[in-house]
Batch of 4 targets.
Target 1
Amino acid sequence: MYTRRIVPLPARATRLSGGLLIAGLLLAACSGGAAAPTGWTARSSGGWSSSNHPGERLSASHMPFHGVPSELASRILESVVLAPGAGKMLGTHAMSECPGVAGEIDFLRKSPPRRIVIFFSIRNDVAYQIRWSGAPSDVLPPEVLAFAQSRLCRVL
């Protein structure tokens, strides 16, 4: 009869393996994190702001999601329109760099008056959102669009 014998690793190797595992996890977390778009700096409350675009804010988030892009778009729509200070949807678009994979929804919030653009995508049962907001007359900065495309359209 064949018996498998498991031999434990020495303590030194285990500590080394644990250190390598932690280093690998940190690197993986950092590589998946959202680096700031060009000209934007991190805020203490999370997200980014830009001295070139005062009053504008940018944030990125992700959460588990088991569904299709249209379901995610509906949830985003409800979260903005039904929130206090109700918003009005101005339009939706597929992102030209990755049609069918990522989208964009443009809102105008009534109180306080803000223009909100939310880019979204689903990958491997995780929903990714990038949210930009500015004054109603603000134009979406090109570096924010490039940032959203690079984060949401990349192939893993």
Note: DSSP finds three helices and seven strands in the chain.
Target 2
Amino acid sequence: MNVLLFRSNQTESGERLKRSIKALDNLESLTDCWNMQELRRYFQTPDPLPETIVLQAKSRQELQALSPFRFRLEQVFFVLILPDADAETVASAHQLRPRFIAYQDSDFSEVEAVLNRLEARSTPARDISSGLTP
């Protein structure tokens, strides 16, 4: 699994999130973005995005700054980490149409579980007795 991670730079929750993603069973690569300018470069290039994106918005303003990328985000599986559970914040988050929402004060074990399940679904099932893929 290839993951693009946008996280709050130098925060405890950002470090916990990165550790959770690094613990994924089938992580092939992790691209770590620390600022909005770097993230914009990824979204503005015509190159394909990684199949999985995890975005951690440290504020409601940062969440709003992600809205221009909504159509690019619809092309991939993406998880959104919110700064709070305020109704306005959650409503803004749903406009981006993430596949999963978590909050900064969580331990991110649910994010890890969701990404592991995603990888399990996208990996072809193997016939254990013969070692062949269907």
Note: The domain at 2-120 is CATH 3.40.50.2300 (Rossmann fold).
Target 3
Amino acid sequence: MNQVKEFDKRLKKTEDVSFLMAKVMTLIFGTFGCFLMLLPLTGSNINAMVENLALFPILLLGMAVLVYLSPYMHMNQNGKNVSIYKMLRFLPVEPKEICQVRKEYLNKFIVKIGIISFTFQQIGAVLDHSWSVGNVCYPIIVIALAWGAGWIYIHIE
């Protein structure tokens, strides 16, 4: 596992532009997704609009996860997009170890956006005076789906 983390440190130095772009896009998707969590799932007079917007945080936070993981999953080599798994097959590491390190990155990121989106959903519900159990379940479901998208992305490669 240490070899994979060392590879990632060197990768960040050589592929700094792709990591920067991933951070910027992750910030954009994550910010919009978390701010949409301010709209409570159940509300008073804006209920129809909120129900129509309920899928957007799922999509935006799912995209944030995928974009966050993308520089760890692919890299440019001779102008071609190459899977990290193909690059690391020459190191004495198992694909399981690569997946495990990637899942550590995923879990750290999910905890961060999970806390933020959960907090935003609760703040929105309290400000709208419409707090319910659905406001607790909704952010958990959103984050679980975003985590699932990241998990699938890691394992599909």
Note: The chain has one domain: 2-156.
Target 4
Amino acid sequence: MDQLVPVLMIVGIVVFIMVRQIGKVTSRLDSKADTNNAFERYSKFSSIIQEHVREIKNALDSTKTKEEESPFKLQEGRNENQALEKLSDFIRKLVFFETMMAKQKSAKEIETELFEVLTGIETFLKEFCVDGETLSEALRERLLNAYEELN
């Protein structure tokens, strides 16, 4: 119980930093681009996130043959099918941002939903993967770099 408080504080700080960074990036995006251009950026970013989620899913799927060693390993005692289903849910949500339906939403609504998906992926890594904290930090950095390259 004594270790839970510092962990929760660290998670809170990480979430706070993530919210601020995403807020900075998205406010810059809003000031530079019109709505259609913003939608295209969100669509491309969604596609990039999907690639990373598929990479995680393939690494955790024991029925797939692995060509190379992956850092994503399921924690002992975790249900593989449940993990794969959660990853499939993330992919389904991300596919939405590439469809015409997402154009009916405002940029802020899309940002909010993308943030929820990103937070869910981060939580998934921490709950289901060995060394999930490190993996989520590395993924966050890769996605931030990919998003900045879209600008």
Note: The first helix runs from residue 4 to 32.
